[in-house]
Specification:
The chain is of the alpha/beta class. The chain folds into 2 domains: 242 residues, 3-Layer(aba) Sandwich (Rossmann fold); 58 residues, no CATH class. The protein is 42% helix and 15% strand. Helix 1 crosses helix 8, helix 3 packs parallel to helix 4 and helix 4 runs parallel beside helix 6.
Length: 312
Amino acid sequence: MDIRFDRRVALVTGAGTGLGRSHALCLAARGAKVVVNDLGTGTDGDGVSSAPAERVVGEIRSRGGRAIPNFDSVAEPEAAARMVRAALDAFGRLDIVVNNAGIIRDKSFHKMPLQDFETVLRVHLLGSVYVTKAAFPFMRRQHYGRIVLTTSTSGLFGTFGQTNYCAAKLGVVGFMNALKHEGAGNNILVNSVAPMAATRLSEPSGIFPTELQSQLSPELVTPLVAYLCSESCQASGMILSVGGGFFGRDQVVEGPGIRFDSAEEVTPEMVAKSWLEITDMASARGFDGSYEQIAAALRATKKNEGEAHAKV
């Protein structure tokens, strides 16, 4: 069965170039009405231009699709509310939000001005929160919504010189982990994508060698995003890495650990003696929520009194 969006309205942030442009074009080609949001800034968030969003809207319309441009900033709650209102005013509803807008201000932590740290968090993390917050009541009312958040392998695993970006991108995952539970009762699904793509944001860091860039086009990321935006998708709370033809799931996991007898004093020396067992990840597993993790921790194998004292 073909995946179509003929009755759906989508808002894609940062859709003037790169990944966002690819997502917007794909959704429109499959029938969605699209709000193409882009402030038109440089990669560092400076400057403003209406040209990128208008250009993508022109592409969509030239192919017979329906779209409107929006030039608001995701980093301000009032502006985020305006872009959602633009979708409702133009098309009467909002079914899909793809939080894609982003900037970079890379620098080693000891050299990074706090303003650069805060600005990147405001765009990537709070920007996703502001736009989703504005859209969420309408999705609840219509008992339908698909929200895609953009995380990063930098946030999941770390990258030198990107403390601001990494913190924001892992924050997006924490936001998703809670929101998936809150949206479930109203058929609002929330997932995160960690894209590997050669875009203008990846150029300054030089993270992708020139010879690999042709294999890492945004168009190789978009099929996953489109699926997550569709009625066919019933998954929520997933972290998915995608790029260059690779599709895979990432997950926060916990090792089996150990549990000392809670009736006895636990000392730093006992922790030191048991360090290899505490940090063993051979049988690591994921959890659907914090309550499930707590229950598993309380069920963890207890060390009997003799074993525990032998470690002192």
